[in-house]
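R.M. (postdoc): so does anyone remember the format we settled on? I'll just put the structure tokens first.
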């Protein structure tokens, strides 16, 4: 029998550098990525564990933690529980400029797939795991590698919160509707969406179009979430504008913009 997730109240504050304040009733808890906590009121107790799953035994928890390490996340998950006799707040901060995206998993088939650094926090009772891309080409050139994060509500419902860069665009694709997306701009999608890659047409487009060699091809039905400013793109712009070690500026007007940008489009 799956544990029923806590139903938590929350407020998202800020515009570009957002934070989420979660209000917990007595006995409720929220799970968060290690290092995301901004503040917690008196009565909130913090505990660190290897897995979101309860009662899975030490080896099971180590296995779940190992899967998280594969996708580049912390080996540990932090739980914040309200042990006070009244409602208490705990706040989590976004890691870089962008938006915090609240997702009720029950409205999306109980499960979504997301980029490997998108998870911020979730109600107790949500599982976080990994999903392997089904095609070699998608894994090599799809922008997220072979592995995506999988957020699942075992009981069919539950709240999760992801973070993405810039502004968030949510699209619902009809059956067989195709949306082509820059490889870095995909944040998350429902499991009903087919995820593949498509080669950018034309030699001039590949070399000078600035979009890299590949698109992500998403085929409906299902909901997808996109971000306007992937962190990798933001980092590239900062590096390109910063002086090099020798003092000469790394200008943005080079013809190819670097082999790495040619490959991934960021």
């Amino acid at each position: 029998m799956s544990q029923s997730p806590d139903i938590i109240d929350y407020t998202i504050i800020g515009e570009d550098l957002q934070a989420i304040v979660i209000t917990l009733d007595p006995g409720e808890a929220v799970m968060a990525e290690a290092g995301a906590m901004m503040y917690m009121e008196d009565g909130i107790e913090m505990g660190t564990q290897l897995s979101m799953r309860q009662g899975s035994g030490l080896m099971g928890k180590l296995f779940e933690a190992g899967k998280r390490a594969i996708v580049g996340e912390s080996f540990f998950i932090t739980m914040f529980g309200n042990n006070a006799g009244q409602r208490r707040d705990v706040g989590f901060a976004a890691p870089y400029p962008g938006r915090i995206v609240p997702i009720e998993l029950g409205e999306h088939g109980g499960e979504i797939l997301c980029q490997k650094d998108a998870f911020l926090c979730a109600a107790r009772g949500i599982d976080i795991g990994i999903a392997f891309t089904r095609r070699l080409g998608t894994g090599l050139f799809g922008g997220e590698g072979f592995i995506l994060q999988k957020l699942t509500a075992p009981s069919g419902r539950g709240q999760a919160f992801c973070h993405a860069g810039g502004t968030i665009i949510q699209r619902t694709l009809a059956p067989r509707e195709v949306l082509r997306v820059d490889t870095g701009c995909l944040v998350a999608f429902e499991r009903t969406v087919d995820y593949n890659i498509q080669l950018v047409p034309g030699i001039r487009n590949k070399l000078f179009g600035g979009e890299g060699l590949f698109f992500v091809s998403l085929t409906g039905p299902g909901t997808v979430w996109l971000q306007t400013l992937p962190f990798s793109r933001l980092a590239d712009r900062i590096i390109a504008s910063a002086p090099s070690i020798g003092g000469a500026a790394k200008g943005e007007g080079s013809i190819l913009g670097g082999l790495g940008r040619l490959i991934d489009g960021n």
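R.M.: ...and that's the designed sequence above, right after the tokens. Also worth knowing: The CA atoms of residues 76 and 130 lie 15 Å apart. The two ends are 44 Å apart (CA to CA).
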